Amino acid sequence: MMASIRHFAIRTLAVGLLSTTASYITGVLSQEVGDSVMRGMETKLSEKNVHRASPQVASVAKIRKELSTCTKDAGRLGEVVERLKRALDTQIAVLGPQDLEVSATLLVLDWCVQEAGHVDEAQEYFTRVLELGTGTLGPDDVQVAKLRHALAECLNAAGGREEEALAFKFGGIATEVEELFDLAGGGPSTDVLLFLGREQAMAGLMMEAQGSFRRALVKENKELKPDDLKVSATLFELAQCIWKSGDRFEEAGETLKRALSIQVAQLGPDDLQVADTLVFLGQCAMMEDGRLAEAEEAFRRALDIRMAKLGPGDIEVSNALVILSSCVREMGRLGEARQTLERAIGIQTNTLGPHDVWVASMLHKAGVLERGMGQGEEAAALFRRALDITMNGPGMDNLGVADTLVELGQCVLKAGQAAEAAELFERALGIRTVWVGPDDPLVDEVLLLRGLCILELGAPV
């Protein structure tokens, strides 16, 4: 009888503390997520019956009940934080560092220090909560996945931690989504797996994304006909992930060929989706030795389709011309590359206007081609046109501008205008130093070129 009463008292105390906590962590988690996490911990608590009632623990509940009143006055947040820290020390001493009540107080403490603007400190507390939750609920529990999401938001708030935040967020999203949608015990649906793959790819988790897309393909091959366009779309997305993983361009190309065969069979050889896949296939071929001719063929087929479907003046036609120009340039046909790029610039100028930054980018590419053919004067003119656009636009201090300054500087230096070249290199040096740091090879390149100007002039510039 006494044991039953004790169990009831402990459980009542625990439920009260946990539910109270859930009301005050909305600065880190949504109310729904906070309640869900606390319910998961409460269930584990009742299963293990690990809590011990004590006046010290009960006092923490009182502090939490006062929290909503205290936080209305921002000036008292510091007082709340100090009281919670003392309460936390007591809990650790009485209950142990791994107790769920410790994690509940850490969540409230985390919210308070975030409200006070101490994001780094909040991050430390939340990491401890995640460790406790993982140890209690298990690494694959859906509530732990939600905690990972919340920690990602905390990392984002700290600034400059985007990659780490994304890794936390999407490292946990698979666990959460799969558990939520695995109601029948047959695993997540194809749509869920595709969703996961896309989210993981956006987060830069390419290996994880490939796994999700491959699992989706297995399901699609069972549920759909092998030439269904949905299979083709999944193959395309899988190929993108393989491509972005690096050094597996042949595998990406073979995956695209499977997608392309389905598209041609279902849509016909002249569909715009076929053109998109051909462009991607050509890019894969360009990355492999000895396959430039295959890449050129794919690009020309894509160009023909786009011109027929969209008209010769469409922006997508110009994009196809740009990539074809890059291909024939790699094959050593610089004159043809220049003419192809001029066609693209003409379309972009008519479509986007003569002062668009994309036009400036194409003018830069054309200048590089001219300089490669030894046409320094023509190249310099193209670089100046590009700078006229970019220096008057919103991105006047980006790395693209610095690249154009360097190219133009080399043209005028070769033409014997060392003083102007030195000025151009100095401007490029300032931009690159800001963007990539003083020790980057791009900065070393400009320093070397500026040094050549100094030697040419015979005195420091």
TrEMBL record:
Organism: Ectocarpus siliculosus
Extent of the signal sequence: 1-30
CC per GO annotation: cytoplasm; kinesin complex
Entry protein name: TPR repeat-containing protein
Cell compartment(s), UniProt: Cytoplasm
UniProtKB keywords: Cytoplasm, Repeat, Signal, TPR repeat
GO molecular-function terms, A-Z: kinesin binding
Gene3D superfamilies: Tetratricopeptide repeat domain
Main location: cytoplasm
InterPro entries, sorted: Kinesin_light, TPR-like_helical_dom_sf
Lineage: Eukaryota, Sar, Stramenopiles, Ochrophyta, PX clade
PANTHER family: KINESIN LIGHT CHAIN
GO BP: any one term: microtubule-based movement
UniProt key word Repeat: yes
Pfam families for this protein: TPR_12
